[in-house]
User: What shape does this take?
Amino acid sequence: MSIINSMNLHIEAKSQNESFARSVVASFFVQLNPTLEQIEDLKTAVSEAVTNCIVHAYDKAQQGEIVIACNLSEKEIEVKITDYGKGISNIEKAMQPFYTTGEEGERSGMGFTVMQAFCDDVSVVSENGSTTVTLVKKV
Amino acid sequence: MELFIDFEGGSIVFRLVGELDEHSAEFVKRKLDSAITSENFNAAIFDLSRLSFMDSTGIGVIIGRYKLLKKQSKRAYVRNPSPTVDKIFRMSGLYEIITKI
Ligand SMILES: Nc1ncnc2c1ncn2[C@@H]1O[C@H](COP(=O)(O)OP(=O)(O)OP(=O)(O)O)[C@@H](O)[C@H]1O
Ligand SMILES: [Mg+2]
Assistant: This one.
């Protein structure tokens, strides 16, 4: 599919950037005339992936970078969210509903499940020091 | 994110206003926990009519508070979620423990 527009966003892995990141991607997506529901779906999925970089990829004290790359084609947006943190050793396990390595009782382990429910495709690659979650949302 | 607390009959009402994500979760948890442990009430209602955004971090926040309420044998209810928040509640099974009213 031919790409008609693209944008890249580099942010520090800080929770105060979450709202900014998902809003920027949603605004970029508007070019494809999505429905309100499609915008909200993408916003939520992007928030999941960005939050995972902040919570899981880097240690609390550690500074880290998140790169968000968006490609628009006629009928869909592809959003690649990359971190350079500790990586995911077992991706299949990580993507299972209710699986979490987070704080006991405070994390539901539903992030990937939400991404899958709210996007048309979700894929994860974690190797050579970087982890990339790719989300595809069709209009 | 803002949290307003008031009472309706014997119920405490938590009105969540704004966006509930990793950034606002700590604040919301702290305020909810202190109200749950210090106020007098029979049941808790989460009013989500002005919650404009929530992701899975919010599911964890709600489940954590549900557990605290359950320890005190108090029921939890939720009302007026947006369509997107409603979808998250449905898919995560939250409505099985917290009734929508
Ligand atoms: N970018 C990442 N780097 C390292 N580990 C990750 C990353 N993203 C996810 N994980 C791992 O995958 C698990 C599942 O992620 P998922 O988002 O589904 O749930 P969660 O973040 O633990 O909980 P929730 O999203 O419901 O708050 C995480 O607990 C973590 O172990
Ligand atoms: Mg998560």
